[in-house]
Amino acid sequence: MSRLIVISNRVNPPAEAGQGSAGGLAMALAAALRESSGVWFGWSGETTELFTGQLSVRRIGGVTVALIDLEDQDRQEYYNGYANKTLWPLFHYRMDLAAYERSFSAGYERVNERFAQTVLPLIEPDDIIWVQDYHLLMLARELRKRGVKNRIGFFLHIPWPARRVFTTLPGHAELAEALFHYDLLGFQTEDHRDAFSDYAVHSAGGVLHEGGVVEAFGRKVRIGAFPIGIDTPEFVAAVQSEPAREHFTRMRDSLAGRRMILGVDRLDYSKGLEERFLAYEQFLADNPDQHEKLFLLQIATSTRGEVEAYQDIRAKLDTVSGRINGEFASVDWVPIRYVNRAYRRDELAGVYRAAHIGLVTPLRDGMNLVAKEYVAAQDPADPGVLILSEFAGAAEQMKEALIVNPFSREDVAEAIKRGLAMPREERLRRWESLMHGVATQDVAAWRDSFVEALTGAPAEAPTLQPVG
Ligand SMILES: O=P(O)(O)OC[C@H]1O[C@H](O[C@H]2O[C@H](CO)[C@@H](O)[C@H](O)[C@H]2O)[C@H](O)[C@@H](O)[C@@H]1O
Ligand SMILES: O=c1ccn([C@@H]2O[C@H](COP(=O)(O)OP(=O)(O)O)[C@@H](O)[C@H]2O)c(=O)[nH]1
Q1: pLDDT digits (tens, 9 = 90+) for 26-39
Q2: Any catalytic annotation for residue 286?
Q3: Quick check: 274 and 316 in contact, CB under 8 A?
Q4: Which residue from 234, 236, 222 is spatially nearest to 449, judged by alpha carbons?
Q5: How large is the ipTM?
């Protein structure tokens, strides 16, 4: 078996299995790498005054990691800039929030070059290279320029947007062209995969061949849908852990006979938290008999706090939750418990299990692992109900959830009502089907199917001349 080199922006495998981290990618990759003898390469998260390119290699939680520091300018232009102020909003259909600054795209290209230059000495001829996510779309092209002929795969954790949205990006063709230097492109869903080939065919004048091969910009790349899952056995075990039991008991005690609706998200505008609060407000307005009989616990962990749009959404949610609580609360009941701190995943497992409804309503989401964790944490004898946005990648697989349009308050409010009233037999039937999917389409299946497809992908001979 070839050695796997995983390259991603963020490299933070948990020190021990079951330890918490606010971000699905880190958990998924740590689980995928634990069984492999490969290397995980990426940014340390630290910045220095001048870029040195010095590698720091260590072992964390059974995974060998190789880290580089970046410059502060890189953090601003590449991470906060092009990745999180340009690509993230655009790929989540927020053209109104996408910022286009030349310094951002220049910083992005520079960091992709720096990654290529620094990882180069680690690459051996038989290695398989697997690049993760929207921070590193240009990495294969930079590696090819430097003479790397290994198979290189790329997995996009966020949505690939519709063609008309992607073409609003200045320089979209250059970015798309860079993707054709990979051997395999993986997407979370068939919808994202098809949006990519639609762009290649209709905007870049390309051709879609048999077997999921797209040709454009004078090159061919194989594409496929590889929906990511959770480490289901590990998560099911975490539900039985001491921290999970402790949190389950603590939650159940604090319910005081009430029922709990639960949301768990990074505090990101793509997660539809404001719309969720407003839909819940609608539910309270429509169902006065339910007042004091339930509450919404929203865990919303801070993220990307240096980016203005995240400061704005945080302030907005403080206001909206405060307003709703002011409107409906009584002396011994608060309708929304709104929490910004992060919880460990084993703690979360206990909280998920105590919730009667898991409310997962992003406006756009690559996958959404919270939906899968919620299902995995349920009591098989008395499971809760998952309400899931049709715009989460997870909706393509989790058809037995109550699927809602998160933009419609009425739709979400009605689903809450239906979920609360759902008879046990129906909850059991839906949960069994959902759990079967979560158990079989787990992170190991995701990793294996991607690596197998990459190993079998026909490698394209690089045409650019090596540099340096
Ligand atoms: O690293 P951050 O900037 O703090 O953000 C955390 C991660 O968020 C994103 O997660 C995506 O990947 C998940 C797993 O595939 C998927 O379920 C979710 O829908 C996506 O939003 C992001 O793509 C990662 O790069 C970040 O590390
Ligand atoms: O306080 C928290 C909140 C979230 N998470 C984890 O963060 C991940 C979120 O992944 P998801 O795919 O739902 O969305 P992302 O944040 O990656 O966009 C899940 O594994 C959660 O268990 C966590 O560990 N602690």
Answers
A1: 666 676 677 667 89
A2: no
A3: yes
A4: 222
A5: 0.96
